[in-house]
Amino acid sequence: MTSKFDRTEMGLLIALPVLILMAFVLPKWVVNYVQVSLGTGLVALGVMIQMRAGLVSFGQGLYFCIGGYAAGMGAKYFGISDLFLLLAFGITAAFVISGAVGFLLRRYREIFYAMLSLAISMILFGVLSGTEELGSTDGFNLPSATYLGWAPEGDVNRLTLYTLTCVVVIVCSIVLNRFLKSPVGYVNEAIRENELRVEYLGTSAHVAVHITYVMAAIVSSIGGVLWALSLGHVDPEMTNWTTSGQFVFVSILSGTGNIAAPMIGTFLLEILRVYAVEISPNTWQMILGTVMLLTIIFLPKGLWALLGSQKSKTVSEPSSNTAHTGE
């Protein structure tokens, strides 16, 4: 794997200072939406890298919730509020659980994979909803985050958490971009096209799917920790089927053409939801459903296909001019 940054990674590195500067320029409510979108965007990335293998997870909220609850339980029962330790808790919990569950899910494809992932997610929803020690259906609150012993307050704490959220999200995006360009990433694309040929070539499709599932779980748990610390609260709705459905919605809306697509799509979905609720408080879901329907009909590859088509036009124009000059 080359150590040089490609165009996508350079774009992500350029976006990092832009995101941080937004906190000083934009209204607080917009910055809050960006911060929440960054956390949930990581979960959408987890869905996206599985879709590159032809797998759709309707239960990605499972690891979103595991990350949030691992951080919450670390704070509630062990008095830990350090951001980096809470991230370690979430990653460890997701790694152990996904490593075990992956042995089951890697054997299934298509609707069976989707429904099994959903079923496991709903099991956790039922357990958390019935556990009074964890707040039952109401969940519980998290304390303000600290950073290696430093405990800022007020706006300083808000800006620090936002800045570190941006850094963590960009780093995770770069890592996943390189994962998609690794041998396992290319095997996933081959699995989507023809899994039987992958096996004939001597590569284990089960192992590739298992690795991808664990990677998606880890990045989703990181998103859960960041999201929980941003809002200061966790509840079982994090693993409900409606939450997982939103992540699939984002992946379809944004497309799988680039690692940055789900991050942008998540923010657009948050803004769309805000205005949909304002325009039609009782039927705002119809607006979201209409947007998804139109996207599937007119942009089956997602919104990122618009950028892809623009790039292809830019490339084709010089070549056509050259051909004309040659004549």
Give the termini distance in whole angstroms: 42 Å
Low-confidence stretches: 314-327
Q: How much helicity do the residues have?
A: over 70%
Q: How does the overall form come out from the CA principal axes?
A: globular
Count of DSSP helices?
Answer: 12
Specify Rg, calculated over alpha carbons. 21 Å
Name a few traits of the molecule.
327 residues, 1% strand, single chain, globular, 2 strands, mainly alpha, two-stranded antiparallel ribbon, 12 helices
Short description:
With 327 residues, this protein is an all-alpha fold.
How would you describe what is shown here?
The protein is an all-alpha fold and about 325 residues long. It has one domain (about 5-240). The chain contains 12 helices and 2 strands. A two-stranded antiparallel ribbon has the order 1-2. α2 packs across α10, α7 (about 185-200) runs antiparallel to α8 (about 205-230) and α9 (about 240-255) crosses α10 (about 260-280). The longest helix is centred in the middle third of the chain and has 27 residues, at about 155-180. It is globular. The N and C termini lie far apart (about 40 Å).
What's the helix and strand layout?
Blueprint (H helix, E strand, L loop, with lengths): L6 H19 L2 H24 L9 H18 L4 H23 L4 H20 L10 E2 L12 H27 L2 H18 L4 H27 L1 E2 L6 H14 L6 H19 L4 H15 L5 H23 L1
Antiparallel strand pairs: 1-2
